[in-house]
UniProtKB/TrEMBL annotation:
<protein>
    <submittedName>
        <fullName>Putative major head protein</fullName>
    </submittedName>
</protein>
<dbReference type="InterPro" id="IPR054612">
    <property type="entry name" value="Phage_capsid-like_C"/>
</dbReference>
<dbReference type="InterPro" id="IPR024455">
    <property type="entry name" value="Phage_capsid"/>
</dbReference>
<feature type="domain" description="Phage capsid-like C-terminal">
    <location>
        <begin position="32"/>
        <end position="315"/>
    </location>
</feature>
<dbReference type="Pfam" id="PF05065">
    <property type="entry name" value="Phage_capsid"/>
</dbReference>
Amino acid sequence: MKSMVLVKQAPLHFDLQRFNEGVTFSSSLSGLIPEETSQEIIKDVVRGSAILKLSELEPMTTATKKIPVFLDKPGAYWVGEGERIKTSTASWTQVTLTAKKLAVIIPMTKEALDRSRIDVFEELKPYIVEAFHTKLDAATIMGTESPFTSNILGAAINVGNSFTRGSVAGQNLADDVNNVMALIEADDQEPRAFTGHTGLKTSLRGLKNSQGDPLYLSSVREGVAEDSLYSLPIEYCRNGAWDKTKADLIAGDFKKAKTGILKNIEYEILREATLHSITGADGKPLSLAEQDMVALKATFQVAFLVIKEGAFAVLRPTGFVPTP
């Protein structure tokens, strides 16, 4: 089968509909992706996505979900002998997660319609996974083509938590990162992790404190690389979603951002569509009917919301000048 492609958190467990492995696409042109494959897709999307590793995950069963959020925590009081003890209550509010549809379309030959759906999904799974986590990171971290009302970079910018690399003469990258962390701490928030692009690694590896100890450490645990900066974990965006013209590094308390995942991954077989985002050898949009092809459309529903904008700060690249 020829195909063309557009373009440590606890695992999530969803109860998806099961299918007979012998069923072909030609007998069912739409429905839910089989349970086992759906589970694997979701787990692989989480592994490949920086935001899903860092943010607070919220399983969803409907397209919207209200979740309670602390505004002010209850306080304690000193009490003198014989004095009445004051009462204190926590201040709560509710925010709403609203799931948006994320879709990938993968053209394939018509012969695939006569094959088992299980076989075809297994073959296309890597392409579906990559498309999902790349688009998700771009939208939630950088705000690129985002359907959501908030994103991590935008949150930092909205509250003025932005520092440009090299903007202080004689100051090295370690000091610049410290300035970024200080922006968050000034709002009584605690930076708990970093995310950035992999091109920053070269600059980070040589950073040392005043005693000559490395500030950047890298280790491997259970076959997985774990990097840290200032003793805080750093998760790299490795899927190409990062916009290097806007940011080198983002620090924050990523638990102040919520990501909701709706349980079902749906599919639909397209047979007559013209795919304007894909061009053939002639430079024209791909016409499935004219080129005797079909396409699989997989749809994944995700919600995202930044709860506390002041919990994030961005290190801008050297020489960054904001666009008007």
